[in-house]
Each structure stands twice: as C-alpha cells, then as structure tokens.
Amino acid sequence: MTGSMIKSQNLPYCKGCGHDLIAKSTTGALEKLGYNPLDVIAVTDIGCHGIIDKCLNTHTVHGLHGRSVALGAGISFGTADDNQKIVVFVGDGGTTIGLQHIMEAARLNLNVTVVVHNNMLYGMTGGQSSGLTPRGFCTTTSFKGNPFTGYDICKLAHTAGARYVSRVMGVGDITDAMMKAFDQKGFSLVEVMEICPSYGVKLNPRRKLKEIVKESGRELGEWTNDLPAFTDRQGDKTANLLEKTPVIEKRFNHQLQKPLSLVISGSAGEGVQLAANIFSKAAISAGLHATQKGSYPVTVGVGFSTAEINVSPEEVLFHGISVPDMALITSADGLQHNRQRIEKMQGGKLFIDSSLTPPETGAEIIRRDFRSVGARNAAIHSILYLCRETGILEESSVYQIIEQEGKADKMPLDKIRKAMEA
Amino acid sequence: MHEKNSNDQVLIDGSRLIIESLARAGADAFIGYPITPANLLYLYGSQRMDMMLPAPDEITTVQWMAGLSATGKLPVTATSFPGFALMSESVNMAHMMELPMVIVLVQRLGPATGTATCGAQGDMLLLNGVLSGGHPIPVLGTSSFEDCWTLSARALEIAVTQRTPVILLTSKEEVMTQKSFDIGSLGTISKVDRKWYDKDCCDYKPYKPTGLVPEFLPVTQTTHQVRLTASTHDQDGILQHSSPEALANTRRLEEKIRASMKEKYLFYQLDHQEGAEKLVTAYGISAAAAREAVRKLRRDGQKVSLFIPGTLLPLPPVYLEILSGYKKVVIAEENMNNQLGSLLYGQQMPENIHFVGSLGKMISPEEIQKEVMS
Questions:
Q1: Where are the domains of chain B?
Q2: List of chain B residues whose C-beta atoms are within 8 Å of the C-beta of residue A259
Q3: What pLDDT digit, counting tens, does each position of A269-284 carry?
Q4: Which residues are paired to A290 by β-bridges?
Q5: Fold identical between B1-265 and B269-373?
Q6: B149 vs chain A: nearest CA distance in angstroms?
Q7: What are φ and ψ of residue A238, in 5° steps?
Q8: Best mutation target, B8, B62, B71, to test chain A (most A CBs within 10 A)
Q9: Chain B partners of A237 at a C-beta cutoff of 8 Å?
Q10: Per CATH, which fold does B1-265 belong to?
C-alpha cells in the first residue's frame, strides 16, 4: 500500500494546538524517508494526541493511558522486519504515568521512536498539572503556578541509554527534526514543546512558549549515546522440559505396607532438600509413589529448611502432612520449626541429632550423631540411617540415586558409610 | 489421554508440565516478572520458550505481551495476586483489542502481600469481576498433573480461537510440589491450528466477526491495515462513543466467551457413584484432598460422588444441574467464603450446600470426610 500516511490535512485539534503540527510533521518525515503507510505501526494512548488514529493510513494501535511506549516495545520485540517503523505517541501526562516504560525502552535501546507531545498539562481531562509541567506554569490545579519542577524527560531518557534524544519547539516546520529521530537504529525520543490553546494559553496570558521553555531550564538540542540497538539475544533453549526429568526405573524393592509421611528438617545450606529429593527418587526406584514439598524462610540462605515427603505403595492423592509418621531432625533450626508437630506425634519414629534435646513426644526417639559427617551431609546421613533402621528402602537404592544424580563426588560417602557402622 | 500402558515414573512438578504443554501448543514467548510462588514457571518459561523477556513490572508485562500478540506471537506469563492486580487494566485492554495470551495465576494467601509462600484459593471472585462491565474472561483451573498437561494447551487454544487473554488458575502447592508421575501416560499435544485472514482484497476489517470472532492479522504484514484499540470501537477499529455498531462489538465480546465456554471448552470430571446422594465438589489444590476423602469414604462403604470442575469461568450453567442431582453437596475450597458456591448460588445458599474452607493451610481429606458424614 502506497500513498499518503494521513487521510486529510484537516485534523481534529483545537485551533493553534501543536498536536496538529506534530501529526503532519511525523507523517511528512516518514514519507520523506520512504516509508509506505503500512510500513508504519503508530501506537498511541489516551490524551488528545491519541485521537489521531482515525486520520492515519498506517497500522494503528491505541492503548491505555501512558502505556503506549510499553505496548510499542512489545510490538518491537515481535517485529523482525527492519523496514517497519514503530512510532509511539505519548503526552506529558502519559509520560508521567508511564515513565518507567520510557526508561525501560531507552535502557534496552528498543527500535521505536517516541514522540512526546509536551503541552505541559493534561488537556483532555481539564488542564491539570502533569509531572512535566514546569515550575511556575499555571494550570487549573495550580492557578498561582506549579510549585514543583517538572521532569526533564530528555535528560532521563538520555541517561537511561537512549540512542538519540532531541527537544524541539513545536512551531514552524519540524519535519527535519522528526526525520532525524526516525532515522535511528535503536531508541529515539523527540520532545516537542507546545502550549495548550484551551488551558495553557488562557491560564498563562502574555507568556510566550519560547520564554516558558527557556525559564524552565529545558534546553533545545540533541543528545546521543553510542550504544547498540536491541537485538533478541536468546541463549540456548531446551527443546523438551520433560527430558530434564529422567525416567526412574524400578530396580529395587521396598518394605512399605502402607503410606508413610516423613519430615526431614535441618538448617539452610545443609542439603536437606537434596537429601529429600534423593530419598523420593530412591522410593520411586523401589516402585513406590512419592511426593516432595520444600519449605524454608523467604531468606533462603538462613534459618530452617524442611522437606515433607510422602511415600506410598498406592498413588498419593493428598500430599499435605500435619503430624508425620516419622521425623528426621538434624539441627536446632529444624527442631524449632517442627517442634509442635513432633510433640503431637502419637507414635512413629523421631530420628534426631544427638546434639539436640528431643521434645516430649509419643514417637520412638532415636538419637544419632548425624552431623559427625559434616553439617552439609547430616541430612543424607539421616536418610541412609532411616533406611537401615526401618528397612523401608534398600540403602543401595539411595546410593544408586546419588550416583545417577552426579552427587557421589560431592558427598563423603566413605565417611558416611563408616559413620553408619559406628 | 493415556497413549500406552507405561510406567515412566519421574519426580516432577506441575510448573514443568504447564510450560511444556503451553510450548507444544504453540506458545512462543514468556514475559516474566519474578513473584513467589510462580517462579518455577518463570524459570521453565525462560528455558523453553523461543523468546523470554524480563519485564520491569507486571503492567509492562502484559503491555509487552499485547504488543507481541499484535505481531502474531503467543505470549505467556505467570504471576500471583499482587502481580495480577497490576495487570488487570492491561488484561482489560488485551480483551478489548482481542489479543491472545495466557496468564498462569498461581494463588497464594492474601489479602495484599499476604503470605507469599502459603497457598490459597482466594482469587475466583476477583477473576469473575476483573473485566469492567462484568464481562467474562475464560478461566481454566488445574486440579491434577494431567490437567496441567491438557488444560494448559487448551488455555492456549481458547486464547487463539477466541482471541482473548485466558487465565490458567492454579496455586502454590500445585506448581511447586514434586510428585512421582508417569510421563508416559501424557497424551500428544498438537500445535494449535491458527488461521489468519488470507484474502488479498482490500475489505479487511479488524473487528468484523466471522461467527463471533474476527479473523486475525498481525501488524507486521503490509497488505491490510490493522487497527487495534482498547476504546469502544466499530468494526474498523475506530473509536466510537456508543454507536450501535460499536456497542454491538462490545456485546459480541461477551457473547463469544459465553458461547464457547459453555460447550466447546467445557471441561469437568464427574466421578458418579451409582446410588450416591452425596457429592464432593472441589477444584485446584482442594481437589487432591477431595479425591483422597472420596477414596477413603468409598473404602468405608459410603456412597459418594466427586465433581471436579475444570472450566471455572464463566461458570458453565450445567454445573448447577450436576449439583442439583444430589441431596447433599460439600464444596471444599481453600478460603473463608465459599467463592465457588457464591458464584453458583449468589446470596441464597441452599441448605444442602455445605462448605469446608481453610485459611493458611490446605484442607485435609479428613475435614471433607467429616463434613460429608455430618
């Protein structure tokens, strides 16, 4: 599709509004650069600038207030064709609410051009101050002048890493300035300074746009970063997630007649979850069903680490454990986290490190120096000892999984075997 | 769904099955923002999807997804309530623009930040009202590993065929707990057949429906003009205040979801026991307790049926018919207020509807058994 980007030169803006100039300069610049209308994806959002869609012959995407930059960013991720141009319109209000989106697009140097229509207030909703309203500029919510300094979006975008940023006055012919922004590889942003004829002019009589911009400290000019434009750099991908969970063949026997719930608990970094995982897989290799659930504080490197395991000759439908049939406690953290439910045990077995004082419990207490093989190996030691004491699983099934998982070199297995015989 | 009599046992979590299923169905981008307890989905999504992008927040997440979707990609994300709350306006946008995507919502204990590492089932009512106007958004709920496999792919299929965001509702315990599972029993998942508008003539209207759903074209093609908008619009995608054509378009958005979800995408399991007058109803993590409770009750000689809805929203009318066939119905749901029951019956809960709820812990099979026998 070739032809004009714009349906009509008669645009639906208030007389004297800079948005009219921006729309015509934008489409004129794109035409001069050789783009056809459907080479262009125009992304707009809420604000007077956003009513331009119906006047454009380009693709148009009209989103939420202040989100046009993020929406345009999403389109850029899916646009492999360098011949297409993504042009994002946003107002100063949209810039305020969507500042993060602009920073992110600039930081990633996405292939989009953002045109900020900065008329220094919210024109569509009644002339309220925005985050870009200059100090001293009068709006319907600050009749005596805005008491706050407005964001300098150009400085922010430049600092965030934008390839090209410019600020221009929205008067005269700004086509060349627009062309320069559109002709970049990477993120570009043009801030066009305007004054809203319906609110800005009336509330700031006798003040000229040029004077307001100058007094606000906003310099006109261009700022560049010599940084690479975004390219999709995806690392190696897994073709099938299921291949990362190898099938566990049944090679061993078990002595379990009914479902067993088990809690293993110790301190963070002491291999509790790994030991639980090895035990669960060993149970599967013995033809049992198993579930494994971990719990630990949000600061995962400190405090308790608890694993809840169910093993059963039949499918485990419900994996929650209130009071376990057996508990393995290898440290004070683990004991503290499970004290209450150990106290509620009416039977079963409590395997507990000999350094700890067992709580009152109805479980048979088995004390053992699990930590003698080192704190990091106490949990796997306790698992192996449980197998020996109860006969539920063959110890060899646990060693087999340790081998399969590539953990044999990382565990002092000889030391553990010796400790088991002690 | 069983392809063979296999025994390919692995120790696996639901997150892995969900992401693999979505990828095989055609999802090709994962947009992530970390949040507990959805982080495994983020991890697997980054490993498996062709494209993974880390968003700086959850508003950006869905905006990026919508942009990708407009180019023809099929994006996925995973989050929990705090993230979903931020997403809600953008989900409305994607629904209005008719852009397919899947959001896996992993429920945790609220309100607000609540307890990130504690599961819950508290978001059904939120989802029922997440679209302004009360329009329905498709929600499927997983209640087993089999569901993680089959319903995830179905969620993507709904997103594509109905051109809408779809929520896959799950919870912490479902996606983080590892269980032994026979992966050889998993059925084949085919890539969702996606048809785009393919006529060369110049009358493409982005919101002119064929049936109830318009044909899709990405903004990356240069043959037809595409207009997408979150504002009330006509078939051309031009903003309208309230013209008859535009309001008809908004009505169509509601109709397409209701029509497709009550039959074509109606998923549930009814394990009816001959002669049973009692029914246990549960979905999600509570379905696990319900299954165990029913197994034990039946072993004790009790006659009891089990109903597990998979299509959660819009709530299919047939569910009321199913529940009306029993003298006593026990609904188990991990919250304080029986959200499923209130969606079914409103403020007038029938006396034969009993509720087992819980806050901060999973409902146990024993609690359900007790209520069934009370």
A1: 1-265, 269-373
A2: none
A3: 999 999 999 999 999 9
A4: A311
A5: yes
A6: 11
A7: -85, 125
A8: B71
A9: 47-50
A10: Rossmann fold (3.40.50)
At B277-302, the pLDDT tens digits run 999 999 999 999 999 999 999 999 99
pLDDT, tens only, B147-203: 999 999 999 999 999 999 999 999 999 999 999 999 999 999 999 999 999 987 768
Rounded CA separation A411/A377 (Å): 7
Tell me the chain B residues in contact with residue A248 when contact means C-beta distances shorter than 8 Å: 9-11, 180
Nearest CA in chain B to A102: B60
Report ipTM (2 d.p.): 0.96
* Inter-chain residue contact B9 with A248, CB threshold 8 Å: yes
Which residue of A46, A59, A237 to mutate against B (max B Cβ within 10 Å)? Answer: A59
Residue B211 predicted with pLDDT over 80: yes
SS3 of B105-148: EEEEECCCCCEEEEECCCCHHHHHCCCCCCCCCCEEECCCHHHH
Considering CB atoms only, which of A57, A79, A317 is closest to B220?
A79
Please answer yes or no on whether B57 and A100 come within 8 Å at the CB atom. yes
Q: Decide if A292 contacts B11 (C-beta within 8 A).
A: yes
The answer to whether the Cβ–Cβ distance between A60 and B223 falls below 8 Å is no
How many Cβ pairs closer than 8 A exist between chain A and B? 218
The per-residue pLDDT for A299 is: 78
- The distance of A288 to chain B (nearest Cα, Å) reads 9
Q: How far apart are CA B85 and CA A239, in angstroms?
A: 33
Could you give the domains of chain A?
18-224 (3.40.50.970), 248-421 (3.40.920.10)
What was the pLDDT predicted at B2? 39
Query: Which of 83-142 (B) contact A at CB < 8 A?
Result: 89-90, 93, 97, 116-117
Backbone φ and ψ of A399, nearest 5°: -60, -35
The CATH number of B269-373, from 3.40.50.920, 3.40.50.2000, 1.20.810.10, 3.40.50.720, is: 3.40.50.920
Cα–Cα distance measured from residue A412 to residue A384, given in angstroms and rounded to the nearest whole number: 13
Q: Identify whether the C-beta of residue B224 lies closer than 8 Å to the C-beta of residue A83.
A: no
The neighbour count for residue A409, using CB atoms within 10 Å, is: 8
Residues 245-264 of B with CB under 8 A from A: none
Contacts of A286 (CB under 8 A, 6+ apart): A250, A251, A252, A253, A254, A393, A394, A397
Note which residues in 345-364 of chain B have CB less than 8 A from chain A: 361-362, 364
CB atoms B67 and A298 under 8 Å: no
Q: Which long-range contacts (CB under 8 A, 24 or more apart) does A380-384 make?
A: A380/A271, A380/A274, A380/A275, A380/A278, A380/A411, A380/A416, A381/A330, A381/A416, A381/A419, A381/A420, A382/A264, A382/A275, A382/A328, A382/A330, A382/A351, A382/A353, A383/A264, A383/A275, A383/A276, A383/A278, A383/A279, A383/A328, A384/A416, A384/A420
For A275, residues 6+ apart whose C-beta sits below 8 A from its C-beta are A264, A307, A379, A380, A382, A383
Q: Give the best residue of B86, B204, B228 to mutate against chain A (max A CB count within 10 A).
A: B228
Residue B40 near residue B20, CB atoms below 8 Å? no
- Split at pLDDT 50, 70, 90, the class of A2 is low
> CB–CB of B20 and A295 under 8 A?
no
